[in-house]
Amino acid sequence: MSDKKTIYLDNAATTEPAPEVLKMMCPYVSNEYGNPATMYSLGLSAKKAVDEAREKVANLIGAESPEEIYFTAGGTESDNWALCSSIMCSDKKHVITSSIEHHAVLETCEFLETIGCGGKADFLKVDEYGFISQETLSEAIKDNTGIISIMHANNEIGTILDIKSLAEVAREKGVIFHTDAVQTVGKIPVDVKELGVDMLSLSGHKFHGPKGIGALYVKKGTKLKPFIHGGGQEKGKRAGTSNVPAIVGMGIAAELAKNYIEKKDTRVEKLTEKLWNGLNENITKISRNGHPEKTIPGTLNVTITGIEGEAMLLMLDMQGICVSSGSACTTGSLDPSHVLLAIGLPAEVAHGSLRFSLSKYTTEEEIDTVIKTLPAIVNRLREMSPTWEG
Ligand code: PLP
User: Fold this and answer.
1) Does residue 346 have a pLDDT over 70?
2) Which of the two residues, 17 and 90, has the higher pLDDT score?
3) S-S: 178 plus which of 113, 125, 199, 224, CB 3.0-4.6 Å?
4) Bridge partners for 72 per DSSP
């Protein structure tokens, strides 16, 4: 558990590793240091641990076989690989994605354009919640569309998109469908067969596993180009000595997440609603972004008129409360969030947004503290503002 004084509400950025994960990783950073690609006992024991973890990750997402799971260094690499591979494997070079994707997808599309590998990518517009309709997708598909990549849930506003219906459109038109499920895997039930996707990205550190490890699910029969060259690891598709401790850690995190999801515990949803109601009752001119129901449990994005998100973030930090303004991956940049702009917020409004993201470790007492602390911060900042008129 984290230091008692810290109230950590930035679980969409990263999560605290579960104690069980750390415990099971320990031997693999000490005496069980074998290379799984070797043939003696120490290596074979590491290989067994890697195989078991692959099975646990496959189970978490309902894959047909562990063979469909390729370990990567995280969600960013999985997204890069899915897009680059699909474009390299086919002479159809047009990419369709959404305007609210993580930068791992957006910038890979831009990269593919610059190296002349892909045709121009189309970034589909979303509605006020972040949804894309089947019609919008269908109309965007061209004869040379090689891949569609649309995220399962948005990391900033939490909205869960209807991937099943979008993947259906892709299947009807014979186009490969990839989804970035980094924000949903380990938090809600995700079943690749039910969703009907060909590829899916996930990341260990978003569901209480270690950082620097993720996976790309590739449905059997889908073409996959090697991404990193120079070794036979991951069936010759992703070279480099396997990160055994992290793989083991993500496997345990996957197993824990599966058990947790099956319990259908609604505590995190209830705490999130309590947080929203508490803030809404005590702060004027506050609104909620993203869909209020079709959302990742624990993610709450709000806009507070008249104040910069960064000012609130820094003052909350002084009280030991960690939250994010806009996307954590772009913290440091003061550009308004591309996601909030895409759902129709004006730039000056988007600047006043905060994202709270809870986890199963969040307590009611912590939420009570935030409900008490933030309204006072808002009042102080508004009093100091030369433009705030109430
Ligand atoms: N995709 C989404 C939706 C994310 O939220 C993130 C991280 O915030 C990533 C991809 C990148 O994952 P990773 O940090 O494992 O590279």
Assistant:
1) yes
2) 17
3) 199
4) 214
Q: What is the mean pLDDT of residues 335-361?
A: 95
Question: Choosing from 26, 89, 322, 329, which is the catalytic residue?
Answer: 329
Amino acid at 36: P
The residue whose C-alpha atom lies closest to atom 10 belonging to ligand 1 is: 75
Q: Which domains does the chain have, with CATH numbers?
A: 7-16+265-384 (3.90.1150.10), 19-261 (3.40.640.10)
- Cα radius of gyration (the chain): 21
Nearest atom, ligand 1, residue 155 CA: 5
The partner residues of 188 in beta bridges, in order of sequence, read 185
Nearest to 182 by CA among 148, 207, 165: 207
Q: Which atom of ligand 1 is nearest to the CA of 327?
A: 8
Q: Mapping DSSP to helix (H, G, I), strand (E, B) and coil, where does residue 256 land?
A: helix
CA angle 174, 176, 182 (to 5 degrees): 150
Nearest CA to 337 out of 70, 125, 156 is that of: 156
Instruction: Please state the pTM of the whole predicted model.
Output: 0.96
84 is catalytic: no
